[in-house]
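Hi R.,

As promised on Friday, here is the backbone we talked about, encoded as structure tokens. Could you run it through your design pipeline when you get a chance and send me back a sequence?
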């Protein structure tokens, strides 16, 4: 007992709630709201599994939990497992009553029948009576579940049934002290977690605690040495039937590697840098289509999205599967089926929760989302990253597939939706977590995105954040170049640089697809107007290479960083996100004092794509101005160039307000054409919302 007490919520022990250290758990018990979505994620593609999910009446008040009751509309009774929700109404939170505990029996019954469940009520305060009632109810429910599943399999009926659930009503602090210091405790919020304190100063509280503990008659349970009596220990199941040994709660034991096609087969042909246009995420979608096809039999891969699968260009996946849906299907609905493997609900919370439950029980997946709105699940990401961090230190926890995000419809191409859709800050949030867990990738083109996607699907115990655009954009690297570039995570683009054989006058670095485009356009302007200037172009795919190797396993060594960025030359870095993140990652680097970062500085509106970069000083003209201002030897020689770019920015502003689109020289710019425009191509922008 002493060992138990000095483990529970004690320094060097275990948390006071369910955590990774708890065998048989997949759900962190600290933050509330995700129990049901985790449970359904575990049940997907686990046809023999029943997931009993206890929901406290406090947690039931959270928005995420309230929405998650609708998860039953995505469950296939023939091919998936079953979630048995147990809504526990004890009446109180920390210091207030709970909503669902204070509505009538009929209202509660109607509420859950409306959600699509058949509620069974187990209510009372006499322990022995309640134990028998609960046991009988569970027996009846198991029979009902088996009947539903047998009918679905035998008759090939995947139509959604009314799944059973339990409403369990007991007093808060049940079987604890009735009163403490003359105040009601059992059946009141005062019993929350710590019903009494001052144990060192108040001997009456010690006596009360002793009587409380003895009320459970420990002498009948343990022998004289403190061990559980053998006849009671024999009542527990054996092997993996024990709750703590359930392999579904240690998903790495069950996980099978995905059968992946060769991503090189999906390469975009790039005869020369910038000569080809492609939609990067559409190319990624073709690869994911075939990943899905190769793993249909194994049923261990799903895609999750808050109604953005097609908008983010993954619609090719629907050639081999459909969207999961088990509510009413109308004749003109598009590719909905109970056995679909693309799971879409307009709730980022549910997509995240389902995917976490799916991964934690040994499967694989990808979550696509608009960049600005992934913030909705900031705290859910926090909890999963913390879980993985702790699991890395627990030897019996087997590695699971990584949590993979695609963030598209990103800040620089949300010009049509406006300011509300423009926010790249999830990157800042992610990099707060431990370096052994988080990875952030910003591939500049489709071939790099393919390489990164393949890597992410093969990785384990990470959170991979991939940011890529969905609009037609210039392609820079052949597949062979892309593989080498992504393997290193960062590199000098020799074909865009002209400092070979000497030192550069300026380093121009870029991270992200739009920053890469604007950087290269600026380099070409510099070549045309200041041809003697020596420019080195660096592209960053793996953001964490900027950190020192002592801070992140992907970080460049100081020697390599200095060789690439120099120790004394100006660095102009165009970044996809907020500029200060780059300073935060590089503040220990030797040449940090010469680093100037352009990125999103919270300037946005409904405008044109290029104007978004102008508003944030990240356009090609501002970048040229930054070079002129920071390369001291240019001086007055560049005055005419600075004047020309000022005039060009005025011309740009006048043009977009007159015509509603960017100037032809911006829209049709192509690398290597020396200022000549390329032929303009129309783009399919269906589902751009």
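Update: got your reply. Pasting your designed sequence below so it's all in one thread:
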């Amino acid at each position: 007992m002493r060992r138990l007490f000095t483990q529970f919520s004690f320094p060097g022990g275990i948390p006071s709630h369910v955590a990774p250290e708890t065998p048989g758990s997949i759900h962190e018990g600290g933050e509330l709201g995700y129990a049901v979505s985790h449970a359904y994620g575990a049940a997907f593609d686990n046809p023999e599994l029943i997931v009993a999910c206890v929901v406290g009446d406090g947690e039931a008040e959270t928005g995420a939990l309230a929405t998650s009751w609708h998860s039953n509309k995505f469950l296939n009774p023939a091919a998936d497992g079953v979630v048995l929700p147990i809504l526990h109404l004890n009446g109180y939170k920390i210091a207030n009553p709970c909503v669902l505990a204070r509505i009538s029996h009929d209202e509660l019954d109607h509420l859950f029948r409306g959600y699509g469940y058949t509620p069974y009520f187990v209510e009372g305060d006499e322990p022995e009576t309640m134990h028998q009632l609960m046991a009988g109810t569970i027996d009846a429910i198991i029979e009902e579940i088996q009947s539903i599943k047998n009918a679905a399999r035998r008759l090939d009926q995947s139509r959604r049934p009314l799944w059973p659930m339990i409403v369990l009503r007991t007093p808060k602090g049940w079987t604890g002290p009735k009163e403490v210091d003359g105040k009601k405790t059992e059946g009141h919020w005062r019993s929350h977690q710590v019903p009494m304190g001052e144990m060192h100063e108040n001997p009456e509280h010690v006596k009360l605690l002793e009587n409380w503990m003895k009320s459970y008659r420990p002498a009948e349970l343990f022998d004289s040495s403190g061990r559980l009596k053998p006849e009671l220990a024999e009542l527990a199941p054996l092997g993996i039937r024990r709750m703590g040994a359930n392999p579904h709660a240690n998903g790495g034991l069950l996980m099978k590697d995905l059968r992946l096609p060769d991503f090189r087969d999906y390469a975009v042909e790039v005869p020369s840098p910038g000569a080809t246009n492609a939609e990067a995420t559409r190319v990624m979608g073709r690869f994911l289509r075939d990943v899905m096809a190769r793993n249909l039999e194994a049923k261990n891969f799903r895609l999750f999205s808050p109604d953005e699968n097609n908008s983010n260009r993954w619609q090719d996946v629907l050639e081999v599967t459909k969207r999961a849906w088990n509510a009413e299907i109308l004749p003109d609905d598009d590719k909905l089926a109970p056995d679909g493997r693309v799971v879409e609900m307009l709730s980022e919370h549910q997509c995240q929760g389902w995917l976490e439950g799916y991964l934690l029980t040994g499967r694989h997946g990808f979550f696509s989302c608009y960049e600005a709105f992934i913030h909705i699940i900031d705290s859910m990401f926090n909890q999963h990253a913390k879980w993985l961090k702790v699991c890395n230190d627990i030897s019996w926890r087997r590695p699971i597939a990584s949590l993979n995000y695609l963030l598209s419809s990103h800040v620089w191409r949300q010009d049509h939706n406006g300011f509300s859709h423009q926010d790249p800050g999830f990157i800042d949030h992610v990099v707060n977590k431990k370096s052994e867990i988080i990875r952030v990738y910003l591939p500049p083109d489709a071939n790099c995105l393919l390489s990164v996607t393949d890597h992410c699907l093969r990785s384990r115990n990470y959170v991979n954040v991939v940011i890529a655009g969905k609009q037609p954009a210039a392609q820079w690297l052949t597949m062979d170049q892309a593989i080498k570039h992504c393997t290193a995570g960062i590199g000098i683009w020799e074909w865009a640089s002209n400092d070979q054989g000497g030192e550069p006058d300026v380093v121009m670095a870029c991270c992200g697809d739009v920053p890469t485009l604007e950087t290269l356009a600026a380099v070409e302007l510099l070549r045309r107007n200041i041809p003697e200037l020596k420019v080195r172009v660096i592209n960053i795919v793996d953001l964490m290479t900027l950190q020192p190797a002592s801070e992140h396993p992907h970080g460049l060594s100081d020697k390599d960083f200095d060789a690439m960025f120099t120790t004394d030359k100006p660095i102009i870095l165009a970044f996809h996100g907020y500029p200060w993140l780059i300073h935060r990652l590089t503040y220990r680097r030797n040449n940090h004092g010469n680093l100037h970062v352009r990125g999103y500085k919270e300037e946005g509106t409904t405008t044109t794509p290029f104007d978004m970069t102008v508003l944030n000083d990240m356009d090609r003209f501002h970048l040229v101005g930054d070079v002129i201002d920071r390369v001291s030897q240019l001086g007055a020689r560049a005055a005419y160039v600075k004047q020309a770019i000022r005039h060009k920015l005025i011309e740009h502003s006048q043009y977009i307000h007159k015509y509603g689109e960017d100037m032809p020289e911006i829209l049709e710019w192509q690398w290597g054409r020396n200022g000549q425009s390329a032929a303009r191509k129309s783009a399919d922008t269906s589902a751009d919302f």
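One thing I noticed while checking it: The longest strand covers residues 82-89.

Thanks again,
M.
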